[in-house]
Design brief:
about 210 residues, mainly alpha, two-stranded antiparallel sheet, two-stranded parallel sheet, 9 helices, elongated
């Protein structure tokens, strides 16, 4: 979106699809209201990707044009219908091949997050076995989920590292070292003693 006058100009680039990050404050309405707030804007659609492979763009088109087909939209049906009607079909200049698969974890009323993470870990385990030597990146919604996902992966024998902006104290290994240091400083700390005695450092120390 661009606007220009004798003494000023305005240039804005945005993607309404980023409103999926609503928990981080993403609001598509901000872009939609620009024409009302700044009359005379010239709008240009940037619907051709120069980065993503064709299978990825095709899935994007399928998801964002067929959402009204969902049978459980409830009170959101009108909003979804309106949004999808305005969604421009995307194209790509890339001729790279690729593969996309959308999966949903089984519903678990007791702990849905645990079920989702375990399902993710299982999928990653299968990919590692089928394509050894390749690296795999996993994106999660919240940084504090990273440590739990790492735990699920390691239970399945998948080597994984934490790279999500988490504090170093979120690491299980760091927590064990901290408990050892606390025990050295306060030998009577029974919580630290229990943590050390039931962790990998116990075997190292005999």
């Amino acid at each position: 979106t661009q606007a220009a006058g004798p003494h000023c100009s305005f240039f804005c680039v945005g993607d309404v699809k980023q409103a999926i990050y609503g928990w981080r404050g993403g609001q598509a309405e901000i872009l939609e209201s620009l024409n009302e707030q700044l009359p005379g804007l010239t709008r240009e659609q940037l619907d051709v990707s120069r980065r993503s492979a064709r299978p990825i763009i095709e899935v994007v088109n399928r998801v964002f044009t067929r959402m009204p087909d969902h049978d459980n939209l409830g009170d959101h049906a009108d909003g979804v219908q309106s949004w999808c009607a305005a969604f421009p079909r995307h194209e790509t200049v890339s001729t790279d091949r690729g593969y996309v698969c959308l999966q949903a974890a089984k519903v678990n009323a007791d702990d849905q997050l645990a079920a989702t993470l375990d399902s993710t870990a299982l999928t990653v385990q299968q990919i590692v076995q089928q394509a050894p030597g390749y690296s795999i990146g996993i994106l999660v919604r919240r940084n504090d989920t990273v440590a739990r996902l790492i735990d699920h992966l390691r239970r399945r024998g998948v080597a994984a590292s934490e790279e999500g902006g988490n504090p170093v104290t979120d690491s299980v290994a760091v927590q064990h070292v901290l408990s050892l240091m606390k025990l050295a400083d306060h030998p009577g700390d029974r919580v630290a003693r229990f943590h050390v005695a039931h962790g990998p450092l116990a075997a190292e120390g005999g």
